[in-house]
Specification:
The complex is a heterodimer of chains A (352) and B (290). Chain A is α+β, with helices and mostly antiparallel strands. Helix content of chain A is 25%, strand content 34%. In chain A, the strands form four sheets. Chain A has a six-stranded mixed β-sheet, with helices on both faces. In chain A, strands 13-12-11-14-20 form a five-stranded antiparallel β-sheet. In chain A, helix 3 crosses helix 4. Chain B has 290 residues and is mainly α. Chain B has a single domain, classed as MetI-like fold, CATH 1.10.3720.10. Chain B contains twelve helices and two strands. A two-stranded antiparallel ribbon of chain B has the order 1-2. In chain B, helix 3 packs across helix 7. The chains are: A alpha+beta (352), B mainly alpha (290).
């Protein structure tokens, strides 16, 4: 039995299922991200674990103990709220101290814990400041320190980075991971940012319309999305209609104009209509040869480390990304030929 | 060019606030100045107000224990009303802020409704309820309690003042509750705080500014209330505003009325400024408002 288990947890508001039959096992020390667009039920899942909302159905167990109906102030979980929810009338140190005071920890012990925690989040110099005197990133650290100081069995993060600007967000991502590794607390983070989920989690739970649709390690999730939605939501992708052609020589997908792509078609019947996912970075420009795809660069965008091209081809418009290796990029309107390596395309069922 | 723009832009705010300032001067400062002048004029029982300068009215107020008693009574009644308004209004505002969609606006309206009814009507209403043959005494009679004298006692004045003043406490507290992030309470709960601790250590400190400003409004208005003490306190139970009214309209001793009015104003100002300096000052230090 895992450390934290959700068994068929559902939350209904009237007939509306905000969360439907969520089943998830989290191991001790794991960093899990709940990823999905807004309204997918990821925050509901977090609130159910936190005890902030009662669940309609299902069971939540923590370390073998049923906590489904335990009130929030008896669960003892660390929660970092999206708005940080710092106590505005208390200093940084007082904010961090609050949870320890509730646990009746003696003052000298408390002071040592607070100092240690503030050092962990690099806020030792700001202990006497009030939250309004801090920047967004610093408030975020206070919220993390306040949640972690009570040594919770689980740390719950609700969109912790969404209020930070892009540069800071990236820094905090790694900071968050560093802190989590250091204290080893099992962590569940809600996010709508796929890059964030991929970069710091051990496993990602993709959610759609109240249901978890794929639970996988980030790399696997990116390389083997289970549906059109996931392949489009996690990273960029080109979705092409195709037909499965299974033969002794290996599986292939036949695209619109007879192009063939080597794929792993296990799970699909011969002749099935499928969607072929080709990531932009898996496509590359090449000289004209057998099997290449002719096209024309319609637009190009400079993204710093790479170029993103929009290429019109007989199969439709494709996105192609190429590393910025310092050489001159391909001009707009240039005629090009595209190719891809074997086994980089993935098949998913056609979305209904 | 920049010099010209600077001059005009410097004066723009003053020019824009001129109409309001003019209205304020005309409606508040001018009558106040006239009242102040009046308080230094002589009064003669036969000839009425006489020109000249004298401190006789002030000497009369300061030298007579009758006035001290009235000022003291006004002070404790206003303070008691403020205290009751805090004790009733703060929980009321909190419950209101936690209500669901249709109920919240309905109950807000219920709380504000008394403001739409003339205070005279409400005072008469209370005198009907609290009188010897009033509804309250009928209920007491039904329970075997004898007739309790409530009308023309401080009790009646306090009860009616609380009724009138409550919205002035609920509204500022409600406003500061609106600014409260409900997640902050959840955060405290998640740190194992009990519901009571959340109230005491998280909610209360954050609505303190609302309580403080509500307290000031209620105290100021109660201390200078006229209609309620006039109608429910009767001829014997006087408060400062009713004495001023009597001096002006019964005794026709305008200078004395003016002197008492200014004394009330000064006392009110002193109370408010002290209150501000002590309580709000301490609060401002914590919340960093300046």
């Amino acid at each position: 039995m895992s450390f934290l288990n959700l068994e068929g947890v559902s939350k209904y508001y009237g007939d509306f299922g905000a969360l439907i039959d969520m089943t998830l096992s989290v191991e001790r020390g794991e960093f899990i991200s709940l990823l999905g667009p807004s309204g997918c039920g990821k925050t509901t899942t977090l609130q159910a674990i936190a005890g902030l909302i009662p669940v309609t159905r299902g069971r939540i167990t923590l370390d073998g103990r049923d906590i489904t109906n335990l009130p929030v102030n008896q669960r003892g979980l660390g929660i970092v709220f999206q708005s940080y929810a710092l106590f505005p009338h208390m200093t940084v140190a007082e904010n961090v101290s609050f949870g320890l005071e509730m646990r009746k920890m003696p003052k000298h012990e408390r002071d040592a814990r607070i100092a240690q925690m503030l050092e962990l989040v690099h806020l030792d110099a700001l202990a006497l400041r009030y939250p309004r005197e801090l920047s967004g990133g610093q408030r975020q650290r206070v919220a993390i320190a306040r949640a972690l100081v009570i040594s919770p069995p689980i740390l719950l993060l609700d969109e912790p980075l969404s209020n930070l600007d892009a540069k800071l967000r990236e820094e905090m991502q790694f900071e968050l991971r560093r802190i989590q590794r250091k204290v080893g607390t099992t962590t569940i983070m809600v996010t709508h940012d796929q890059a964030e989920a991929l970069s710091i989690s051990d496993r990602v739970v993709v959610m759609e319309a109240g249901r978890a649709t794929q639970v996988d390690a980030p790399y696997r999730l990116y390389e083997h999305p289970k549906s059109e939605f996931i392949s489009g939501f996690v990273g960029k992708t080109n979705l092409l209609p195709g037909t499965v052609l299974r033969s002794a020589a290996g599986d292939e997908a036949v695209l619109g104009h007879g192009q063939r792509v080597r794929v792993d078609a296990s799970g699909f019947a011969d002749g099935a209509h499928v969607t072929v996912c080709l990531r932009p970075e898996k496509l590359f420009f090449t000289d004209e040869a057998r099997g290449t795809l002719a096209g024309r660069v319609e637009e190009r965008f400079f993204l710093g480390s790479q170029w993103l091209y929009r290429v019109s081809t007989p199969l439709g418009e494709l996105e192609v990304s190429a590393a910025n290796d310092g050489s001159a990029p391909i001009a707009e309107q240039a005629a090009v030929h595209l190719a891809w390596a074997d086994d980089v395309a993935r098949l998913v069922a056609k979305a209904p | 060019m920049s010099a010209a723009t600077n001059t005009s832009s410097r004066w723009t705010p003053y020019a824009l606030s001129l109409p309001a300032l003019a209205l304020f001067a005309l409606m508040v400062l001018l009558p106040l100045a006239l009242t102040a002048l009046l308080s230094f004029q002589q009064y003669d029982a036969e000839k009425g107000v006489q020109p000249g300068f004298t401190l006789a009215s002030y000497a009369l107020v300061l030298g007579d224990s009758y006035y001290y008693e009235i000022f003291f009574r006004t002070g404790w009644i206003a303070a008691l009303v403020t205290l009751i308004c805090v004790l009733v209004g703060a929980p009321e505002a909190y419950i209101l802020s936690r209500m669901g969609k249709p109920w919240r606006s309905i109950f807000l309206l219920v709380i504000l409704a008394p403001l739409l009814v003339s205070v005279v009507v409400r005072a008469f209403g209370w005198s009907l309820l609290l009188g010897p043959n009033g509804v309250v005494n009928h209920v007491f009679g039904a329970f075997g309690i004898g007739v309790v004298k409530m009308l023309y006692t401080p009790t009646a004045v306090v009860v009616a003042l609380v009724h009138v003043m409550l919205p002035f406490m609920v509204i500022p507290v409600w406003t500061s509750l609106q600014k409260l992030d409900p997640m902050v309470e959840s955060a405290a709960l998640s740190l194992n705080a009990s519901q009571w601790t959340v109230m005491r250590r998280i909610v209360l400190p954050q609505i303190t500014p609302g309580l403080l400003s509500g307290g000031l409004i209620v105290f100021g208005l109660s201390a200078s209330a006229l209609v309620i003490p006039g109608l429910l306190g009767g001829r014997r139970l006087k408060m400062v505003a009713t004495v001023i009214y009597d001096e002006y309209l019964q005794e026709l001793n305008w200078p004395l009325g003016a002197a008492i009015a200014l004394a009330l104003l000064v006392i009110n100002l002193v109370v408010m400024l002290t209150y501000n300096a002590v309580l709000e000052g301490g609060y401002a230090k914590r919340m960093g408002r300046s």
